[in-house]
Design brief:
Elements (H helix, E strand, L loop, with lengths): L12 H5 L2 H6 L10 H17 L8 E4 L4 H6 L13 E5 L6 H10 L6 E5 L3 E5 L10 E5 L6 E3 L5
Parallel strand pairs: 3-5
Antiparallel strand pairs: 1-2, 2-4, 3-4, 5-6
């Protein structure tokens, strides 16, 4: 079911729940109905980012959006991942530039993200806060699990 979540059809339920890993491993990665509101809010944030940065429709690519518990475990996600609640997406936009440039540009926007994480220099994790929480606008970078998270968007 390809439910339209916002005015941005490129961030529909099918796109935010798609996973090659889930398909390959035979895992069900459908979002439960009670989390569709989160996906809708995430879709709206991604659309706002796309518009604000003048990124053409379809150029902001979702590497990972919603993850069911089994998929999250399969990909090595942390047990309390925002992805499991439909609150996060990992994105890239080669047309815009390297992930670091994308993360730095998003950090400058007035949009209400919860976390913005440059992950391993390869993609940008963008999340929204749960409805009952104020968005933190927390910016972090991680390049290795041994080094851990660094404050801010760090260019290397």
């Amino acid at each position: 079911m390809n439910l339209k979540l916002s005015f941005h059809p490129e961030f529909c339920q099918d796109i935010l729940c798609h996973s090659d890993t889930a398909r390959r491993c035979g895992l069900d990665n459908r979002c439960p109905p009670e989390l569709l509101g989160n996906l809708s809010r995430l879709s709206a944030l991604l659309g706002e980012i796309q518009q604000s940065l003048n990124i053409r429709s379809g150029a902001l690519k979702i590497n990972s959006g919603f993850r069911a518990e089994a998929l999250n475990a399969q990909v090595g996600g942390v047990p309390n991942s925002q992805h499991c609640w439909g609150l996060a997406a990992d994105v890239v936009c080669p047309e815009f530039g390297p992930p670091c440039d994308l993360a730095m540009a998003i950090a400058q926007l007035p949009c209400e993200f919860d976390q913005l994480i440059l992950e391993f220099g390869k993609w940008v994790h963008v999340s929204i806060a749960p409805l009952d929480q104020t968005p933190r606008r927390e910016c972090l970078s991680i390049f290795s699990k041994n080094e851990g998270y660094l404050e801010g968007i760090v260019k290397r």
